[in-house]
Amino acid sequence: MHFFTKLFSILTRHDKKFLLFLVFISILISFVEMIGVTAILPFITMASNFATIHTNPYSEYTYQLFAFHNDIDFIIAVGSALLLFYFLRSLLNLGYFYLLAKFSKGRYHLIAYRLFENYLGMSYRAFTGKNSAQLSKTIINEAQNMTLLISGLLLMLSEIFIVIFIYAVMLAINWKITLLISIILIVNALLLVTTVSRAIKTSGVRREEHQKKFYEIIQSSLGNFKLMKLSSNTQPILARFADASSGYASANIRNETLIHFPRLFLEALGFGIVIFMVIYLVYKYQNDISGAMALISMFVLGLYRLMPSANRILSGYNQILFYKSSLDIIHNDLMYDPENFGNEPISFEHILQLNHINFEYDEAKPILRDITLTIRHGEKIAFIGESGSGKSTLIDLLIGLYRPKTGTITVDGVMLDERTIKAWRTKIGYIPQTIYLFDGTVAQNVAFGQPLNEAKIKHVLRQANILEFLESDHEGIHTMVGDGGIKLSGGQRQRIAIARALYGDPEILVLDEATSALDTDTEAKIMEEIYKICANKTLIIIAHRLTTIEGCETVYKLEENQIIKNSEHIKGKTP
Description:
CATH superfamily of the largest domain: ABC transporter type 1, transmembrane domain
Strand order of the largest sheet: 6-7-8-3-9-10
Number of helices: 20
Order of helices and strands: HHHHHHHHHHHHHEEEHEEHEHHHHEHEEE
CATH topology of the largest domain: ABC transporter transmembrane region fold
Structural class: alpha/beta
Largest sheet: 6 strands, mixed
Helix content: 55-70%
Shape: elongated
Oligomer: single chain
CATH architecture of the largest domain: Up-down Bundle
Strand content: 5-15%
Number of domains: 2
CATH class of the largest domain: Mainly Alpha
Mean pLDDT: 82
Distance between the termini: 62 Å
Number of strands: 10
């Protein structure tokens, strides 16, 4: 029941209606399948003995209703009708399988989209507690596995109705033999569920564990490719990768092998039941069983159609078990409440005020204590301090990514909260220490998801003093940067990051140790350009080098989770 609760919480209202429609169609298909199984034997009986046409009240009524002239015409007409019926039956099944595929495979897009939307909508603090490799795996693999789980469930539902209808016919023909067959099948099904299905479930858990390691190793290795090349020793990484990869493969091999076991076992069981029926009838009548051939043929046809359905039910059940961990992962990740902010405007013309701010990541481990700070519009300020002193955390509070545990942040007297934080973030241009450029053009990296305006892109690249270089030595704003900006130097990547930050016309520019990886000369040139760009903007800098903050009016030092005004650091004293 817990399984269905999770599944239905993921499906939309439209999905549930479509699922109900598929259940109705599966009942119709099952009824058609029952007719397909039961119709062929009477036709063969009538074709073998024309006299049975007139002894059977149903065939005799049809014969008289359509005024057939002879038995041959009647058999030809019935045969032609059966041919048409089986052709239409195939088309109906094909349409049903299309609807099943549309529902199950179509959920991949919807589930993957909802996951991605949820990840983008989660708070920054929640995101920092996530593993990006795990998030990628969930969107790419677990969402795909979820469709396989849904396929298994729909397969079970469709075949269950077929089994019910065929059993009803078999019970009507001979309830004693059918009851015996039922007991044999139920006992063997329970045996399969407690052995094979349990092993498949265990394999599913191992699959997810090894695949998680698989993604983490790939991402960490390719993300540090330069270090990998410099180390000249890839064996430890390859050994870890081999362990995760082989473990993932082993889990899938075990599943692919075990998933065929029910079919092979049930086929052998079906033949065994038929042979047992023949032996039983020979023993009972102590004679040949020509008189019971009609009964045996009916049960053979029933079992011929019943066994594949039983196999599909078990296969669907095992598929659900193997991919159940995907349902758990997706359900948990979709339960995150995304940030829901209002669109109330906020203006920054005078003062940004932090009032008695306290913040901590873990209980009783304060990062910032009783921070009170005033930043005036157009001011150039810097934060210095030892690593771990809380500089970046303070910046994240200022730009609205974190919320203080206690205390308030106001902008021109207006509280920074759920109503105004969305508008506040649009006023921020942020340049981090580590610049990520994706494998695209300079223009695409500058716009970064915003509408692409070539004139505006050229303007901000000119402000960042890199447009001339791109147009003279490369293909201008259409220059490809490579994955991670590998085709550019560190300084060039930094200038593109500046252009990206300026593209949204920010009122406040924030540098979070943005130039720390550059050489002194390059840093000095870039900072000179930044100070010019920010002539009428507020500039907030986190830095270690004094040369970076020479143009700042005020310097604050963070020490022992508190803030100290340190204007004298501008004059060249050691921080």
